[in-house]
Amino acid sequence: MNAILITACPSGMATTFLAARRLEQAAERLGWQTTVEMHGELEPVQPVSAEAIAAADLIVVAADHVPDPQRFKGKPLFRATIDQALPDPGGFLERARREAEAFVPGGETHATPVSRTGAAAATAGGQSIVAVTACPTGVAHTFMAAEALAEAGKALGHPIRVETQGSVGAQDQLTEAEIRDAEVVILACDIEVDPTRFAGKRIYRTSTGSALKQPKPTIEAALAEAAVEDGSAPAAGGGEARKSLKEKGVYKHLLTGVSFMLPMVVAGGLLIALSFVFGIEAFQEEGTLPAALMQIGGGTAFALMVPVLAGYIAYSIADRPGIAPGMIGGMLASEIGAGFIGGILAGFLAGYVAKAVTRYVKLPASVESLKPILIIPLVASLVTGLVMIYIVGEPVAAILSGLTDFLENMGSTNALLLGGLLGAMMCFDMGGPVNKAAYTFGVGLLASETYAPMAAIMAAGMVPAIGMGISSFVAKSKFSEPEREAGKASFVLGFCFISEGAIPFAAKDPLRVIPVSMVGGAVTGALSMLFGAKLMAPHGGIFVLLIPNAITPALLYLAAIVIGSLITGLGYAAIKRGGQAVAVEAGA
Fold first, then answer.
1. Domain PTS EIIB type-2, which positions (predicted)?
2. CB 204 within 8 A of CB 177
3. Which of 484, 531, 502 is CA-nearest to residue 426?
4. Which band of pLDDT confidence, cut at 50, 70 and 90, is reported for residue 138?
5. How many helices and strands in the chain, by DSSP H and E?
6. Are 448 and 544 in contact, with CB atoms under 8 Å apart?
């Protein structure tokens, strides 16, 4: 293959030359003979010769437009923006060879494969689809949504491959070849994921909840509405335009921060609990193992919670330039006593300042490359730090201190009300935005060493799934065989603190399942607060009881879960109508 490679970026800076070198190296690996033409400001343009054009089998243009287009008339030509060439130059060249068309000067937008992948692709059958699912905790929704999409794609006749980005990292990872051959990419993610490897592909963004509950409509909408995004930024049209606030913007940024913070909280809480195995105050003796465990868990892991939360909220908003100012703002929030509330504010402030500098600060071409490593971190960190110290810090610290004092000193009536409210929220949408709001509140308070709300939240979160398992066992005559099998799975998921196990039941019979689950959850949450239960780790379900002092008092806490689960299970068994099949199959 004899090819001509042409690169040009809007600023004319290093990207032009980097793209040219990477494409040239990729072409060598493919065994191509290449001639390169670079359009930049660091050295004069050396146009390819007429002889080279005449001998070329393919013209590859990585630029916003074709330079001097008349010279390529009738030649097989492929054009796409330069940011689509950088992540995977080999795949970019393969795509160019596959999709190039005879070039017509003046009509290059029609010759670009990217521009002609719209409605025709949406109406064709058997299209190749790749997808990524990711929820904030990376446990249940991630994998259930993946299974639902896989089943729905199979039912609709579309080959589909789904990658899960869960709590243990990416699994079933998509290969470069699968991404290259895919016609549509579905990103069913509640947190920010790196979209650069899908550059040049038609992308449809949605939430894991939508993919789980409506997998077939999600795939159909993706085929009809997916659009090529400009670089790594979300497309302005298509499905994204109609998404609610909870699926983008503030909600998604917050959940991204919580997702990255969660491992710190879990590790830190369990290490603190392990230090308590030797005695509640054993860590106070320096040089001992309990002291070391407390230093690792409380002194280090918990100290990183708020900076990581703030840093990855900012990352979700402004990408990598937001991480440094976000973490700096989060550390300041911790030092001045503003806690997780201050960290959230610092993350959003740092992210939007970094994004504003990226978008609106225009620099001479000669220093533009310094922006991401010098200008953005400096300006965003300075603005965030000064605002946190002189404006936000003290008022937020006072609010957090007041909230902490209230939670620590509230009477039994207030404890019952708070526990009941948090418990009902956890059971209202079983992993949805209301559930996540309560969960985020509990996790955030752990940074302030306030452990009671988190205990009530996790206990109540187990109730819906355990309750459905109990109900399917107690009232077998009202449940079909598939329902009883779903009940067994739900029972196990409930023990693991995976509320989503009750979703198949709630999807079919929401007017009965949701209210009875909320009642059971509210009772469990209220009892947990009344018993003074404290939880060191925000996940793990019933199995955290195996770690001494991770939950106190353990027996009363277990009793609260049993009582609430029995209320939900027996209550639903009493009010359920027989003969209604639960939608246990993904995509049903």
1. 1-98, 129-224
2. no
3. 502
4. low
5. 24, 13
6. no
